[in-house]
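Following up on my earlier message about zinc ion. Here are the inputs again, as you asked, copied directly from the submission form:
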Amino acid sequence: MTGISTKEELFETVRQLEKIGGELAQVVWNDPEISGEEVRASGRFRELFREEGFAIVDEPRMPNAFYAEYGHGHPVIAFAGEYDALPGLSQKAAAHKEPVEEGGPGHGCGHNLLGTGCALAAIAVKRYLQSAAEAGEEISGTVRFYGCPEEEALAGKTGMAYLGMFEGCDFCLTWHPMTANRVLDTQCLACARVEYHFSGVSAHAAFGPERGRSAWDAVELMNVGANYLREHVPDRTRIHYAPLPPLFVPNVVPDRAGVTYMVRAADMPTMRSVKERLDKVARGAAMMTETEAEIRLIGGTCEVARNSAFADLYYRNMLEAGAPEYTEEELAFAREVQATLDPELLANEIRAYGTGGEGMAAGVEPRNHWMKVPVNSGSDAGDLSYIMPTMSAEFAAWAMGCSPHTWQACACSGTTLGEKGAFYAGRAMAGTAYDLLHDPEARERITEEFHANVTVPYEPMLSEDFLKRAAE
Ligand SMILES: [Zn+2]
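Thanks, got it. Here's what our run produced:
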């Protein structure tokens, strides 16, 4: 290609990268690795960026994390890519449930696409900066692609932030595969994961129950307490729990038992205060049962801080980049997938979005869609939004009605439906970066809003294990 100078030419650059992007998305989809094990996926992304002439910065304490950098000066624009898969979601690119490997991992959240879309945006912006320099116009600006592992464990970006990997960044763009095209001008929830381990005294449950102090009783009483706490917490708080191993039998008073909790709330300070109250419930349960409670923080993430100015810019670029069109064959596949969904839920979704009856969503959802519908889930992108202005959007990659973390989402993520979502995301993010490079007023508006919305200092929530490893 000759010189790249306009935004339209930048979009065209992303289109020319589709072959590379399609191959990358397929290779990662065909070789799913779960959180913490993304050795081959991170290797593939590194290789691509090395070939493209980026400098690679590794972090030995997190071997599956890296960033690739090109350019000089500010603004430094980060694209946060992911590539981890989910356990148990192995699935062929078929419209019926059929695993590649029974019980094996699969890309049920489409992170093969997420990484690919961000990679294409980063490479296109790099080629643009390079082309300008070759034409004698030095543009101040640096592009970085972040290979972020362990998103599904809600831990990757938090660890990277703790290790200083985002230092020097000014703006961050990312996206997530979903069923419609919409900018995420929303808050999500702050989230923490905590394990409560109780230890007591074991005994024969019939011969000498009075000698026992049951750790399982403590778990049960803690859960009862938590369920009473539930009514007296701020709106949008979520508390969920599941038992931890080991399992035991009824005729032994168990001397060890544990439960893992997730606490979510509208913002970090609220979440921390609910977690502290839950810790008290655990200590109370231990006191009642004469057992000992040990509280282990596994990790936590911030809510996603809002930034309307940034959402405006991203949204405009979603419109400019143009939503994809689908072939009859692709739409037929999407409708076959829809036929496996609950018909009532599907009808509700199509009604709510006003699109998707043909199989895939068309066009871009109205800018203020999320003002009406808060997202009650978490994302480790929340931590990024506390460090720098960060904006994400969802792009249609799955048949309308599909949910993340399902075989249907995994199947669509392995087809050209998913790829088209990644390519569209790549164009829209590259276009947004183009505006960030050229529009100082937009940069100022976004940065001002960031400082107005993020008023508490960023404090990563990490497990003691991670902190110990990081200190080595
Ligand atoms: Zn995901």
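One observation from looking it over: The CA atoms of residues 107 and 347 lie 26 Å apart. Hope that helps, and feel free to reply on this thread.
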